[in-house]
């Protein structure tokens, strides 16, 4: 899912609680400044996740004083992380989900992991217009630890009833919507790591429309930059380091892994600088593309238009500016022999597909399709195999289609999940870098341990393979990871609000 802004009531109160949970509607105070990435094919029923990116408010009452995060920045002591499995399949489902447990006793939910959003939300039992999802709706009356977030200066709007709860609302580029109330409860991250259950603020849906209504997943886990995100809440409490990682399974396996918190970067990880001032999203400095070892004749500025180059785990495929897409497509086709171009599986899309590949699955596609290199700011390269830019034709066995498309007339480069199959992506927000490591994500834990030789999630600041500077440091159409840490961190229960009936 790609961007998610929200609409604060005034420019002076960047309504943290609301801005944190107004999923795809992080509207800035001035509507003219809001930017939305729109899918190139509106109205199609293809299972493609594509949520809009919006700028985040510049300030928020939810952020606190930020001292805990600054202390984390200067500490090299190991801290816990949460290891979590990813489920579902990028192409068949359009997303990857992970499990969160909310309340006491815990109620389980399957949430889409989304780096383009700061909101975490689930359907509420009071919802009269929510779809039938994977798990039962969240029932706050069954949780002894649930508390509503009362109306305050940070709310963009408030419920006109006796509870006077903060309300949230979000809209997606493909016209789905969600709205509801904000609540606070204990959220658990499973038992694979050492992060204890934490009180966190989340959205409790009372209405959803469009794809949000029909999707199988229960809701969204927002991992984007901004105080409302689960990552920011855990970092602000001093529970984890300011980092998380995702690892998506391959074409024939699906699933994957996720880690909230720091890990020891594996040997061979390739880094790209991510400038938080460039855009409110996870961006990298992409300088060029190589196909079969040959550089495409493109200026680096092509990848720096509008919002720059953005990574979004909630978008399935990848979208390039027009000039880059045309050059990429032509270069791929020049490298193909003994294959036949055929129509795509959906007449609503002009997919570029090929039959005659010398493989019935994704494991042998290199015999037919070339490698693609992404070149970062100082020449570092991340090599992609065919499974990172192809998807299987759903109607023709043994046929494959390009999973990289033209982003309409938009100059933004949007890199969705397909590009990072079997790639550990480490979002090191503490050092403003994003690391990439090609691996088998279905066997991530063993491979990561073998590479690092370290069982603890040590700070990336103390690892020789980790970048320290704020410059480049070395080697998505639809819309995780190190072992447990040493020590347990006790947490303080934050802001209690009375729960009325």
* Rg estimate, integer Å: 22 Å
Strand content: 25-35%
Uncertain regions spanning at least 5 consecutive residues: 2-75, 453-501
The overall pLDDT average reads 77
End-to-end separation: 35 Å
Structural class: mainly beta
**Given the C-alpha coordinates, what overall shape results?**
globular
**Number of extended strands:** 27
Question: What can you see in these coordinates?
Answer:
The structure is a single chain. The chain has 6 helices and 27 strands. It has helices spanning 16-19, 67-74, 211-214, 230-236, 322-334, 444-452; strands spanning 82-86, 97-102, 107-114, 121-123, 147-148, 167-171, 177-188, 198-208, 219-222, 243-248, 256-260, 270-273, 283-284, 286-291, 294-295, 309-311, 318-320, 340-342, 353-355, 372-376, 381-384, 390-392, 400-402, 404-406, 413-415, 423-428, 433-438. With 501 residues, the chain is mainly β. The strands form 5 sheets. Strands 2, 3, 4, 5, 6, 7, 8 and 9 form an 8-stranded mixed sheet that branches. The model is unreliable at 2-75 and 453-501 (pLDDT under 50).
Secondary structure layout:
Elements: H1 16-19, H2 67-74, E1 82-86, E2 97-102, E3 107-114, E4 121-123, E5 147-148, E6 167-171, E7 177-188, E8 198-208, H3 211-214, E9 219-222, H4 230-236, E10 243-248, E11 256-260, E12 270-273, E13 283-284, E14 286-291, E15 294-295, E16 309-311, E17 318-320, H5 322-334, E18 340-342, E19 353-355, E20 372-376, E21 381-384, E22 390-392, E23 400-402, E24 404-406, E25 413-415, E26 423-428, E27 433-438, H6 444-452
Parallel strand pairs: 3-9, 4-8, 16-25, 17-24
Antiparallel strand pairs: 1-11, 2-3, 2-7, 5-7, 6-7, 7-8, 10-11, 10-26, 12-27, 13-16, 14-15, 14-20, 17-25, 18-19, 19-23, 20-21, 22-23, 26-27
């Amino acid at each position: 899912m790609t961007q998610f802004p929200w609409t604060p009531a005034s420019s002076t109160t960047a309504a943290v609680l609301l801005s944190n949970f107004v999923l795809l509607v992080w509207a800035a105070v001035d509507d003219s400044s809001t930017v939305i990435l729109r899918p190139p094919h509106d109205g199609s029923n293809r299972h493609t996740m594509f949520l809009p990116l919006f700028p985040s408010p510049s300030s928020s009452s939810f952020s606190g004083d930020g001292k805990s995060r600054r202390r984390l920045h200067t500490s090299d002591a190991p801290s816990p992380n949460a290891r979590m499995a990813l489920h579902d399949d990028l192409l068949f489902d359009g997303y990857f989900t992970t499990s969160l447990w909310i309340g006491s006793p815990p109620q389980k939910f399957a949430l889409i992991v989304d780096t383009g959003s700061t909101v975490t939300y689930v359907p509420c039992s009071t919802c009269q217009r929510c779809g039938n999802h994977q798990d039962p709706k969240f029932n706050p009356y069954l949780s002894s630890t649930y508390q509503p977030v009362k109306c305050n200066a940070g709310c963009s709007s408030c419920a006109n009833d006796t509870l006077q709860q903060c309300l949230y609302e979000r809209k997606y580029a493909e016209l789905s919507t969600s709205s509801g109330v904000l609540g606070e409860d204990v959220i658990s991250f499973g038992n694979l790591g050492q992060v204890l259950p934490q009180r966190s603020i989340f959205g409790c849906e009372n209405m959803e429309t469009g794809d949000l209504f029909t999707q199988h997943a229960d809701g969204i886990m927002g991992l984007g930059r901004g105080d409302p995100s689960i990552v920011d809440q855990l970092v602000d409490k001093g529970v984890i380091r300011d980092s998380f990682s995702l690892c998506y399974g391959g074409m024939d396996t699906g699933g994957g892994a996720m880690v909230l918190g720091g890990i020891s970067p594996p040997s061979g990880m390739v880094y790209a600088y991510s400038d938080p001032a460039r855009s409110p999203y996870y961006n990298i400095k992409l300088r060029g593309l190589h196909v079969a070892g040959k550089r495409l004749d493109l200026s680096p500025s092509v990848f720096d238009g509008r919002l720059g180059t953005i990574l979004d785990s909630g978008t399935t495929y990848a979208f390039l500016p027009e000039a880059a897409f045309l050059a990429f497509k032509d270069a791929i086709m020049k490298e193909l022999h003994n294959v036949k171009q055929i129509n795509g599986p959906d007449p609503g899309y002009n997919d570029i597909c090929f039959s005659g590949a010398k493989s019935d699955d994704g494991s042998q596609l290199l015999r037919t399709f070339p490698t693609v290199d992404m070149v970062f700011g100082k020449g570092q390269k991340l090599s992609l195999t065919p499974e990172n830019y192809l998807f299987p034709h759903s109607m023709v066995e043994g046929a494959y289609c390009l999973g990289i498309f033209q982003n309409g007339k938009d100059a933004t480069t949007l890199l969705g999940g397909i590009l990072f199959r079997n790639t550990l992506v480490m979002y090191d927000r503490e050092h403003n870098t994003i690391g990439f490591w090609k691996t088998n994500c279905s066997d991530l834990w063993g491979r990561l341990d073998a590479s690092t030789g370290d069982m603890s999630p040590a700070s990336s600041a103390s690892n020789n393979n980790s970048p320290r500077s704020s410059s480049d440091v070395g080697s998505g159409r639809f819309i995780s990871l190190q072992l447990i840490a040493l020590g347990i961190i006790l947490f303080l229960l934050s802001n209690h609000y009375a729960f009325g009936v």
